[in-house]
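Human: I wish I could look at a protein chain and see how it folds. This is the protein in question:
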Amino acid sequence: MTAPVPSEVTAAILAAVTRTRFEDLPAATVRHAKQRITDIVGCVIGGADTAGSPELRSLLVARGGRPGATVLPGGERLPTAPAAFANAIAARGNDFGVLIPYIGTTPVWSHISESTVPAALAMAESTGASGRELITALVLGDDLAARLTAGATYVPGAGWDSPGLVNKFGVAAIAGRLLGLDELRLRDAFGIVLHQLGGTFQAIDAGAHTFKLAQGLAARDGIEAAELAAHGWTGSPDPFFGPNGYIDMYCDGVDLDVLADGLGAVFHGDATFKPYPSCRFTHSAIDCALEISARLREAGADARQIGRIHLDVAPMHVDSPLDQPFAPGRNPQGHAIFSLRYAAASALLRGRATLAEYTEEAVGDPAVAALADRVSITGGRPTATPEAATLTVGLRDGTSLTAGRDTATGNPLSSPLSAARIEAKFRANWCFTGMLEPARADDALELLGRLDEVDDLAELTAILVRP
C-alpha cells in the first residue's frame, strides 16, 4: 500500500469535512455523538457558576454585539463566537466533561468535546442548522481533532495544553461546515487557526482559573477563523504540513497513516465519560477511596480512625501538578480538581465524589485538609497504565485496607458508563446549578436523544434556558 503524502492528506481532510453527509455516518457514531452532546450540555449547565464563569459572562455581555447564539442556562444573547467561548468555559468549569477518544485500544489523551460541542451548538443556532447538520459537523470536527492529537508526536508533558492546539482546528472544521465553506475557504480557515495556537499547563500547576481558558479560546477562535475565511481572508496553502505549519512548529513528527486511515469513513470522538468532577487521573484514586470508605462503614469504622494514607500511581504523576501539597489558594476548586491528595481524602471522609464535594466550601473543610496532609504518593504503578492507582489506608489500630485499579470507572474498554448513568450525571449537573426546574431535565434528555430528528434547535434552546 502506498504511503500517504502530506499534501494528499490535507486534501483528504478538506474533502472529508466538506463532503461527508449525515447518511455516511454509522449509527454508532451518531449515537455516541448524541451522548457527547448530552454530557457536555449538562456540564455547561452545571459549570455555569464555577469560579470565573460569571465574571466572563459579565464582561462579554457588557461588550455586547449582534446576537447570534445563547449562553446557557442564563439565556444571555451574544455574538456566536463569544457565546461559544462562555459556554465552553462553563463546560470545563468542573472538569467533568467526556474526554479521551480511543483509536482501537489506544487512548488519545485530549479534552476535545468541551470546546467542540459548545461551538457546534452556537454555530447551529446562529446558522439555523438542523440536528442532523449539527451532529455531522460535530463528528467531523471531533474526528479531525482526535486524529491530529493521535497522529503527531505531540507530548503534553512538554508543557503544551492540547485544547489550545488541536481543538481550534476541530472547531474551525465545525464552523466551516455549518457556514458552508468550500474546500478552498476551509483551508483558509485552518491557515488562520495556525496563527491563533497556544496553551500551557502552567495554569494547572497554579490551580488558576486559566486552566479552562484554552478550552474556551478554542471555541471562540475556531469560529472566528471560519468567519474570517467566509469573509474573504486567505490562509496558508498547507497549514498542517507546510514550512512553519502545525506539524513543523508544534510536533516532533507525524504518523500520516493515523491521520489518513479511514478518513471520511471511520470517525473518532471523546469516549471516556467521567463519573467524578475532577481530573481524569484522580479517578482511580477516587474509585479506591470510595471502596475503602464503604468497607470502613461496613466494619463500623470511619475516617477518624485513619492514621496514614499511601497512594501509588504511575510515575508520570509524581512531582506533577497532581502531586502538589494540598494548599488551596485563590481558586480552591481549581486546585482541588487537580489534587490527588484532596481526591483521596475527600472520598475517604465523605464516601462520595460529587459536584458538592468540589465547591469552595467543601474544599475548605479543615477535616479534609487534615486527612489530605496524611497522604503520601509514590510512582510504583506501571508507566503504561497512567490511570492506575493503589490506595493503602492504615488504621490507628494497626490494620490496613488496600484497594487497587488499573483503569478508572468510565474507561470505555473496561468499565464504560452506561447510558443510564450518563443521563443520571446530566440530571446531577442540571440540579446542581439550581437555575432550572428539575422536572425539565427529562424534557431536555428526551429532545437530546432524538436530536437527529430535530429541524429547529430553538426548541432545545428554550428548554435549556432559565425561564
Notes: Residues 362 and 412 are 30 Å apart (CA to CA).
